[in-house]
TrEMBL record:
Residues 33-75 form the Chitin-binding type-3 domain. It comes from the Bacteria. It comes from Actinacidiphila oryziradicis. GO terms for biological process: carbohydrate metabolic process; cell wall macromolecule catabolic process; chitin catabolic process; defense response to fungus. One of its GO terms (molecular function) is chitinase activity. This is Chitinase. Pfam families: CBM_5_12, Glyco_hydro_19. SMART domains: ChtBD3 (SM00495). InterPro entries: CBM5/12 (IPR003610), CBM_sf_5/12 (IPR036573), Glyco_hydro_19 (IPR016283), Glyco_hydro_19_cat (IPR000726), Lysozyme-like_dom_sf (IPR023346). The active site is at E145 (proton donor). Gene3D superfamilies: 1.10.530.10, Carbohydrate-binding module superfamily 5/12, Endochitinase, domain 2. GO terms for cellular component: extracellular region.
């Protein structure tokens, strides 16, 4: 209702002693800044919009996707979009339970949805099909890494003392054997705990055990790797899914040095099988380029 008409009606109602209920005006959403460009250079304070949000660069950056790199600060929804809520995740709790019928009670659905705020571009980028494919791809790799969300920590304890790189200036303050694999993508090595902790604002170098005691932290480390790390591949798993490279490239980024190029086809195929099962649960298609 135009403001002048609303004001006139209110005045008349006041004179006549009538209680008038007018529809509340809705607050306008922030305007979106110019769309983020992978080729553009952004310096501190410059704005860009991506995935329905405005983002502010903290310092110089180029080709670092908003929502998947610490250089960007989320300035909130724009253009009428709203921040994705846990209930808006493309995987429902019922579907999650269907995917992981024998999961360890540590890996809660609420822990996963609580972790989503750390990387709002995850499973919210692209078409509905792409969003579901990315969620299925992440969870398929997670399922392979953890035996169906059964294992919280690496099972081969003989490896525990090998994940400390003393050449790093910060060393291994939690102890020589403290940086074994934990969580949904089995975070390991002191330098990975340091990098993940720095990105998430959590001191994981000194407190690596948080990854096996706090479900939201565990899920956040998995999303950190998915959204920001290329591993032995050439792109992050997130970019592989949203840019059409396919599920096979996510395998390459997570464990390609051991499973791709014909090295261990059984392990690779297990990931593919899980992905095919999960996209079916989500009611979508698998896409192309499933193997590596």
């Amino acid at each position: 209702m135009p403001r002048r008409i609303a004001a006139l009606l209110t005045t008349v109602a006041t004179i006549l002693g009538i209680v008038l209920f007018l529809p509340a005006s809705s607050a306008s959403a922030a305007d979106c800044a110019a769309s983020w460009s992978s080729s553009a250079v952004y310096t501190g304070g410059m704005m860009a919009s991506y995935s329905g949000h405005n983002w502010s660069a903290k310092w110089w950056t180029q080709n670092e996707i908003p929502g998947s790199a610490d250089v960007w600060a989320d300035q909130g929804a724009c253009g009428g979009s709203t921040t994705p809520s846990p209930s808006g995740f493309v995987v429902s709790e019922a579907q999650f339970n269907q995917m992981f019928p024998s999961r360890n009670s540590f890996y809660t659905y609420s822990g996963l949805t609580a972790a989503l705020s750390a990387y709002p571009a995850f499973a919210t980028t692209g078409s509905d099909t792409v969003k579901k494919q990315e969620a299925a791809a992440f969870l398929a790799n997670v399922s392979h890494e953890t035996g169906g969300l059964v294992y919280i920590v690496e099972q081969n304890t003989a490896n525990y003392s090998t994940y400390c790189d003393w050449s790093q200036w910060y060393g291994c303050p939690a102890g020589q054997s403290a940086y074994y694999g934990r969580g949904p993508i089995q975070l390991s090595w002191n330098f990975n705990y340091k990098a993940a902790g720095d990105a998430l604002g959590i001191d994981l170098l000194d407190n690596p055990y948080l990854v096996q005691t706090d479900a939201a932290v565990a899920w956040k480390t998995g999303l950190w790797y998915w959204m920001t790390q290329s591993g032995p591949g050439t792109m992050t798993p997130h970019n592989a899914m949203v840019n059409g490279a396919g599920f096979g490239e996510t395998i390459r980024s997570i464990n390609g040095s051991l499973e791709c190029n014909g090295l261990n086809t059984a392990e690779m195929q297990d990931r593919v099988n899980k992905y095919n099962a999960f996209v079916q649960i989500l009611g979508t298609t698998a896409g192309s380029n499933l193997t590596c």
